[in-house]
Amino acid sequence: MRVLVTGATGFIGAHLGMILAKRHDVLGVACTSQHLPDFPVSRTDLTEPDASRKLLQSFPPDIVIHCAAMSRVMECEAHPVKAEEINVHAPRELALQAAARGARLLFFSSDMVFSGERGYYTEQSPPSPQNVYGWTKLRAEAAVLEANAQNIVVRLNLVVGKGRGFGTSFTERILDEINRRGKASLFTDQFRSPIHVRSVVLAATLLTERDISGILHLGGSQRLSRAELGRALCRAAGIEEVKIEEVSYLSHPQASLLPRDTSFGVGRREMEMPELEVRPVETELAADFAKERVLL
Prior knowledge:
Mean pLDDT: 95
Number of domains: 2
Strand order of the largest sheet: 3-2-1-4-5-6-11
CATH class of the largest domain: Alpha Beta
Largest sheet: 7 strands, parallel
CATH architecture of the largest domain: 3-Layer(aba) Sandwich
């Protein structure tokens, strides 16, 4: 199978490309990063006119996995036009070009399409974004599915794990903050359904091989606050839990842009991929640090 992976130097794209390249003909797409993963990568700016057509003409894929995004909420608020170009226009054109060649597209969206008022959101829950990032993702979802009804939109919840030198994950941001400040301030009252990047990669691999379309929620089975997740990370890494400073998300100067509870209902994920074992994040994080200790 020929697989095109955008965002190939990002946290998810690099992990995914490395695994898929063991079994398939993979071409990654990156724009500016100088540090490239160990599989073929095309340097392409997908926001440039005609970039998607030229790319798919040179490498006609069976499936496109679109990981590239401008994903920081506050950065999108500060630069909404750029966010629209990267998060809406680029995936729309990529989806149209893929459809014209009979290729499917797997698009990674986000839990940020929801307001966060109630949590445990399913694929049938009505979206209501609270920030620019969420709105761009929602518009991109519509464009991707309009281009080809056989495409799949995977809404990701909070993805954790080590970055392997590519991208920066929640895990690494917390560890960096503890190293710099001696503590990390995390919200006790903002909730997600965290999932490890290994589970995301396995799920995406399964989805490339199956006739599944529409919207799918991909998150863990646990509903955790950021503070609870931070303490789980500390336990896995052998760090004192007191290094997690508990604060309210309402203390953030732009709290209105931060959904309170975007946890997922994962019934469709369990039905479509019953063999996908999504272990508790603390178990997965402990495995990460155990590997590091073995290497040392």
